[in-house]
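Researcher: Go.
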Amino acid sequence: MNMTRRLLLVLGDQLSFNLASLHGLDPQSDTVLLAEVMEEASHVPHHPQKITLIFSAMRHFAEALQQRGIRVQYVRLDDPENTGSLPSELRRWQALMQPDEIHITECGDWRLEQSLKDCGLAIQWHCDSRFLCTRTEFSSWAKGKKQLRMEFFYREMRRKSRLLLNGDGSPVGGAWNFDAENRKALPKGVRPPAPARFTPDAITQDVLALVAKHFTSHYGALDTFDYPVTHSDARALWEYFLDWGLAAFGDYQDAMASEEPFLFHARISAALN
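Model: Structure:
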């Protein structure tokens, strides 16, 4: 087993080349670790399409890293050496590779983060820079408040980012939100665009078969899976929304219509998360 200077664990919802823990990555001496583990896939009964999305996106990201010359250790769910949880996989690879340092970007799941902090290894933690607001900033904003209302936090983030603000700090358009104008019923004869769909490639087909085999007790079917699983797919979905959905999205974002599950929505949330 090749030794490594830094072992960098990347989670299934952290598939970004700009991830904080990947800053300064040296392809010659560092190793990225990704692992599909049963504990994360089954601690609650996730929909099998969600599991497929995450595992397929992880495999595509690992391939993209390798194409950039980065060393990757990838653990598949059905690997006979797979220990079944991220803390135990991290301990296993620490013992195998003897890294000088272990780096992780803070988790989006408190349960997982605590289990990694309790795994007995010295870990260097990184603030997740993909968010506009750090945990420390949020804690400072929330301190002493009797209610944590999204509207007021949203306004604070607008002020911080200067998005859609006039020079004097007032909101463009004269109001902080226009929710009352976004609740129109869908008129008869208005047809939303057909949703952009992504045909599963060979990697995703393999994951679909894996999930179908191991998660038969989870609710939901796999046969309609069409999510974006690569960065390029996600960009294509976003561009499709800008071209075909955005103009009508505001008016009808809260509308509902029979046989129309998406209307003008972007469907980009899964790729963002």
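Model: The longest helix spans residues 48-67.
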